[in-house]
Amino acid sequence: MLVGNKETEMYRQVYGHSFPDLYDVARECPLAMLNSNEMFEFPRPLMAKFVYIGGLGMGIGNETRSPLNLDFKKLVDESKSIVVFTFGSIAPAYKMPDDWKEAFWGAFKDLSEHTFIMRYEKPEELVGKLPSNVHAFKWIPQTDLLLQPKTKLLITHGGYNSLQEAISTAVPVVAIPLFGDQPKNGKIIESRHFGVTLKKSEIQRDKIREAIKTVVEDESYKKSITRVRQMIKKRPVSAEDLLIRWTEFVGEFKTLENLKPKAQDLSFIVHHNHNSFRYHNHSSHYNHNRNNHYDYTYDYNCSDW
Questions:
Q1: Same domain as 42, residue 83
Q2: Domain-located, residue 303
Q3: Tens-of-pLDDT digits for all 305 residues of the chain?
Q4: Among its keywords, does the record have Transferase (predicted)?
Q5: Same domain for 209 and 82?
């Protein structure tokens, strides 16, 4: 089963034992909405039942900037250039190794012309330890900060939502992929010239400093991400319209058998015409990274993307 029995069992406890296996539900689904956008995603062959709705609700091209509270407004008003730093909620920044923290704080200190606004879940740990141009907050209004004209860069773990926010606000990126889909997102950032990526093993003061300088000082990164933002804005059919129209379409016709590929009913072995195959167990590698997202001993090799 591609979907674990535990999830199916949870539904059966609520809806009864006649509830179908979730794998069968997914297989028979008439349509799939993808949280991605073909204007920046890697090109790939997809069937007609897949619809791109990436950026839904972000209002690309029609963003509204909410007023900042006094703390953030004061920082923005007093700054010449702003860099936003956040690693999202799954990999809290306070759990970074100490050598990472020293590398980041040192690089930020070297770039005193910029003000660094950082999400750090335990800011009380950093009292008296940060350079004067670095400010840590338990929470930051990320989108509103990215929409500030003074914001020059986003430093991120490369999560998909952060990537889409960077595009919607046309802010270039320095990405440090940690786990999951982030290495692939980092390759999107590089291939589309939205910014640069650093491997976990490259978190050193000089490399962080040079990555920031490269992206901020080279206007081609800003031009590239702005161009894709405009392409999404002028896309013939918006993500919102696609969602509404396709939902109404499925609601009217219920099933879309004419979009169902015959291969969907074949087993993996028959589908891929395999007479034999070898299984290699990567579980120990995966489990190690899952428990420590910052462990650079197991750096990702994304050369195949």
A1: no
A2: no
A3: 444 578 899 999 999 989 998 888 888 889 999 988 999 999 989 889 999 998 877 766 666 778 899 999 999 999 999 999 999 888 889 999 999 999 999 999 999 999 999 999 999 999 999 999 999 999 999 999 999 999 999 999 999 999 999 999 999 999 999 998 999 999 999 999 999 999 999 999 999 999 999 999 999 999 999 999 999 999 999 999 999 999 999 999 988 888 888 887 777 788 777 666 565 554 444 344 545 666 655 554 443 33
A4: yes
A5: yes
**Is the whole model's pTM more than 0.85, yes or no?**
no
CA distance 57 to 59: 5
CA atoms of 110 and 115, how far apart (whole Å): 11
Q: For residue 200, what is the domain's CATH number? A: 3.40.50.2000
The b/e string for 56-75 (b: 16+ C-beta within 10 A; e otherwise) is: bebebeebeeeebeeebeeb
305 within a domain of the structure (yes/no): no
